Amino acid sequence: MTADFAGPGKYAAVAWVYVPPGQQSKGTVELAFAPNGSRSAGAGALMRLVPGKWTLMAAEATVPARLRGRDVESITIMPITNGFDGDGGKVYFDEVALHRLPDEK
Prior knowledge:
The chain is an all-beta fold. It is 0% helix and 53% strand. It has strands spanning 2-4, 9-18, 28-35, 44-47, 55-63, 66-67, 70-71, 74-82, 92-100. The strands form 3 sheets. The chain has a 4-stranded antiparallel β-sheet, with no helix packed on it. The protein has a 3-stranded antiparallel β-sheet with strand order 5-2-9, with no helix packed on it. A two-stranded antiparallel ribbon has the order 6-7.
């Protein structure tokens, strides 16, 4: 999901994440920021989930006006799964959102 860039500052990404009950995977889920589409330059949150329970994930990042010599023009939020593919596991993401946080005074 790519959102219009509202300028440099603090941002929060949130998502509800679910793994069906009875699933025994040791996989993890990640919610990553990618300014200008560059995941390596972003921040994020990584966690394991409890099967059968919707879990709220949240990540915060300070996004600069310029990154690697280029103006930041977009922020991509990437929901990522790791370790669920091999055992036929399922992961559901819902209500993934990006919020600009107020500037500190």
